[in-house]
Amino acid sequence: MKISNFKKVGSHAIALVLVMVLAVSCFSGSAFAAGKSDDVKTRISNLAILNLANDSNALLSEYREPVVMARHLFNSLDKTEQAALISDGTLKKLQTAEAKVLNLWIRDTPLNSVVDGGVTGVMEEQYNTLAESLGDAAMKSLVPNYSRVKNYNDNLISTFQTEKRENYKAAMKAEAVINHMQVLALSDKPEAIKARTAYDALTSNQQAFVTNYNLLKDAENKIAKWEGKALPHQDAKNVVYAGARSSSYGPGTPWLSKEDWKSVADDMTSYFPNAQPTLLWIIGALHDEGCNLEFAQPNDGVDYSSKKITFGEPTMAGHLSHEDYFNYFDEHGIKVYLQVEAGYADMETLMDLIFKEYGHHKCIAGFGVDVEWYYGVEEDSGLPVTDELAKEWETHLKGINPNYRMFLKHYNARYLPPTYRGVNNDILFCDDSQSFGSMNGDTLGQYDTNVDDVLGFIPEFKKFSECFPNNEVIYQIGYHPDAMWYDTLEDPVIKSLGTRLAEVTKQNCGIAWVDFTLKDPLTFPQVMKDGDMVKAIKTRTDYLNPNGEENMIGKRFAASKASYSDAMYVDRLRSLIDKLTKTERGKLNQKSLTYLSNVEAKAIDIRIKNLPAELRKKDKDTVTGIRKAYSSLSLEQQKRVTKLAALKAAEKQIAVKCDTELPFKVKTGAAYTFKITAESKPILSAGTPSVFKIRFVKAVGKDYFFKATAVGKVGTASGFYINFQKTPVTVATILK
């Protein structure tokens, strides 16, 4: 989602002449129907929407699909046939119909929320393209609702951008308080309270931009444990479905065995114990202009090819029949939603065929539609699902089995029905958005150009869930490009990411890990086969290539704009490589490894630069980790590290240890002796010199002794500071 434009802005998306509404399939030689111009001319001339008044209350679903089909047929003609229909005015009729469809679509879209930014760019592109042919005056007459798009662009975008900036700014202030927090003992509880107060002061939208909430939860759990109380933070209870997406093309070869799928489901439910193990199982994948169902064609005499439906068992090595998998899932309590990528195939016919084949399995929970491929055969070309269409599909599904549920999947909520939510809010809505730059919108992703337009992974998925507040939602996550930031999360990364999603989601939800990254050392290493580890490493190192559409980290390093997260990605990648066997190392692409070695010194500089100005005991592991990474570099790489002096200074600072860190009391006139261990003589000072007088006593090896004498009034107190740090190491109060 982008605030001011379509998320996937590239040559494969927006540049299509008629992207979302009209799902244009711009290719010649189509096998669709007859390609004769007289048939196409008749179809276009008979489009009912041509006779529809612009102020009509007509349903979009009654008029849209015939227009889409007519455009598809026109595009299937050869150039000579198209030229004939252009010259006789038939194409102009089609464009007029398309303009009228656009008008209805705009009418039915709220255009009042940040989520609308994903469709206004498409509407604008569609309008401008048609205006080139029909003229501005005609378009103003045919699409009077376009004023709503202009209002969104002119008045609302800047408001949403300002809101994003303010939310992010507020979140970063709270995040800084959490980062500074140090809870090593029960006496540190006030720091956790301060961090909690800062977080709770945020709005729910602002909280979604906070990326280190896990630190606060960990601190509060430690305090509760020390106090003998119940832990306040448990596993996410609102994650009620947990599993994976399955496709014939996703996992690679060899495909996953029955036991592999159970292992994946077991891991997911161990991360989310309140969840039902659930798989989103693609049983019908896009094929040419329709859908290929992955089982044998029924012997019923029906010509399914004319309905854009083909049949064929999966051919991937290791892929069993779906019947074998479902029998196994029946026995092991794993639920399955059978999903299709329909193309131009009829949805109800697909349902009938699928459930006739597999409806006897108790593991089957329902049916799913990837809306990106509904009346679309190219990326991002599917039609939005109207209320009427969603109701029609659900009614048909429940006619097959009233217990079946339907899920509708798309990365933008505006592709999904505006108001229809199913019988008793039974429809599941699934978000499969990907290619983010970061969790919180501080970094550009693959399709982004302006950071003010970017919400980030967590805030965007939160917005999606809020579009369906009374329905359960499913998050299909784990795509390769997003590993550029989720690889840096706390292990297991799936639990860390899924838990944060659950925290910002008010309703019940599901986590479905996409099958592209199942065979991965950071997700499900137990299902990896020979060669999978090397493939996973190569994918990650390739993201450091400064060239290439998806290689955002490599581009940022090349432009000297790499983030702290990018630096930690490099560190995680190096740790994975270090775990390889000698044989696996020999199989790595040496060019890809060069991408890594070229940025490691820069990554260390970034990590040093991001160290807190005031280091505390909790930061010791961070400093030690940087030194370890530096020491593992080659001599040539070490020479390229420019902030080594700052690292040494940090090590010196973090090495200082005081024997007194808890608050204490001293009688007036009495003295207290501190022992401070350091590499060189430290400086100990009283925050209020009129209360305590400090005197250096002696040094024994690396131990330095200071005497603090109580010279102030009874009841007064002072903090004690080492090397002028901003936070006192301890506080003392004077007694009688």
Descriptive overview:
The protein is an alpha/beta fold and 736 residues long. It has 4 domains: 159-226; 239-527, TIM Barrel, CATH 3.20.20; 532-654, no CATH class; 657-735, Immunoglobulin-like (Sandwich), CATH 2.60.40.10. It contains 25 helices and 18 strands. An 8-stranded parallel beta barrel has the order 1-2-5-6-7-8-9-10, surrounded by 6 helices. Helix 1 (37-45) packs antiparallel against helix 2, helix 2 runs antiparallel to helix 4 and helix 5 (117-134) packs across helix 6. The longest helix is centred in the first third of the chain and has 35 residues, at 146-180. It is elongated, with a radius of gyration of 31 Å. Mean pLDDT is 93; it is low at 6-35.
State the gist of this model.
With 736 residues, the protein is of the alpha/beta class. 42% of the residues lie in helices and 14% in strands. The protein folds into four domains: 159-226; 239-527, TIM Barrel (Alpha-Beta Barrel); 532-654, no CATH class; 657-735, Immunoglobulin-like.
